[in-house]
Specification:
Alpha-Beta Plaits, 4 strands, 2 domains, alpha+beta, single chain, 4 helices
């Protein structure tokens, strides 16, 4: 299995929920022949050049694993979906394990905001105390500067 990246541009004429439904539809097509690793919705962006008299498009990027034979089937399936202005499938060249680790980290349960706020207050107080201790130690150890010039 190889890792691929698919970018689609959907017509901006659709409402947000219709674009999300189409995004889920494409996810389903990919899931039939591969394993989706990551989906990144970029949202509505300006196109580099007009496509079918449109200057904006709704961008979505998928990273998935599949057999090379599935890519041709996916390509054919995407061609017949009318709202898709453009699509492109390329080999994914970044570190797949790093992407999977980031996905796992994002899926891990997060610490509640109350605990985080308490930890932040404690760390600020500790930091203030250490700065005060450092300032006191500098004032205790300072000696008057000696004259560098000696009388001749």
């Amino acid at each position: 299995m190889k890792t691929y990246e698919l970018m689609i541009i959907i017509t901006p004429d659709h409402e947000e929920n219709e674009a999300e439904a189409l995004t889920e539809n494409v996810k389903g097509i990919i899931a039939n022949g591969g394993n989706i690793i990551h989906t990144d919705v970029w949202g509505k962006r300006r196109l580099a050049y007009p496509i079918r008299k449109r200057s904006e498009g709704y961008y979505v990027v998928y990273v998935f694993e599949s057999d090379p034979s599935f890519v041709a089937q996916l390509n054919q399936s995407l061609r017949v979906i009318e709202p898709i202005l453009r699509h492109m499938i390329v080999l994914y060249e970044d570190d797949v394990e790093k992407l999977k680790a980031a996905q796992a980290e994002a899926a891990a349960p997060e610490v509640s905001d109350a605990d985080t706020a308490e930890d932040t207050v404690e760390s600020v107080e500790d930091s203030a105390e250490s700065h005060a201790d450092t300032a006191e130690s500098h004032t205790d150890t300072e000696e008057p500067a000696e004259d560098s010039e000696e009388s001749v």
